[in-house]
Amino acid sequence: MAPRTITTVLFDGFEPLDVFGPLELFGNLPDQFRLVLGGPGGGPVRSAHGTAVVTDFSYETLPPPDIVLVPGGRGTRPLTEDAGFLSWLARWAAGADLVTSVCTGSALLAAAGLLDGYRATSNKRAFAWAREQGPRVEWVAQARWVEDRDRWTSSGVAAGMDMALALIARLHGQQLAEDVADRVELEWHQDAAWDPFAVRSGLVPG
């Protein structure tokens, strides 16, 4: 079987670990996954911390994806008000086998209507804001990640790596996911409901 293409949607102000944590894991399996980066104009895109990343395609030239990955970061705020971007994202991602997000990337999916009728989560410190972007979404306050059919959303930043391993396990088996975690020396939280940060952020009782 040909590798699945994982296409990450970059934008100015994206959170680097939201992107490169999961891509490190998927990238360890080149026979299973092909990694593609898309950005506004197909050139360098600056992260929330100032470093720039060169993308493979512009939004308008991105090939159809198998799996979509939308990161979070401070750049999500203006994009939830960008009708052109949201229209493009809704149209382009609609045909993907899986649509995933890390951190406040779920706010972009919600604003684009891609999470309507789904369960989802987001960064706990920005949870109230993310929830405002999707009134037709069933937001789950306490979750490391949420899997609902063809939509996978994770909590903040580092949680994306746990979700990525869970996705690898779902698609290619538990043993392969554990092998990848061992290879990168990552202690994988395998319980999707493990979320002490929801308590610390006052979203659920302690």
Account of the 3D structure:
The chain has one domain: Class I glutamine amidotransferase (GATase) domain (Rossmann fold), CATH 3.40.50.880. The chain has eight helices and eleven strands. Strand 3 and strand 4 form a beta hairpin. The radius of gyration is 16 Å and the shape is globular.
Q: What's the level 1 CATH class?
A: Alpha Beta
Segments where pLDDT lies below 50 for 5+ residues?
Answer: none
How does CATH name the architecture?
3-Layer(aba) Sandwich
**End-to-end CA span:** 46 Å
Placed side by side, the strands forming the largest sheet appear as 5-2-1-6-7-11-10
- Report mean pLDDT, rounded to a whole number: 97
CATH superfamily: Class I glutamine amidotransferase (GATase) domain
**Helix and strand element order:** EHEEEEEHHEHEHEEEHHH
Percent helix range = 25-40%
- The domain count comes to 1
Helix/strand-derived class? alpha/beta
CATH topology group: Rossmann fold
Strand content: 15-25%
Tell me the overall shape: globular
Describe the sheet with the most strands. 7 strands, mixed
So how many helices? 8
- Round the Cα radius of gyration to an integer and report it: 16 Å
Based on DSSP secondary structure assignment, what is the total number of beta strands?
Answer: 11
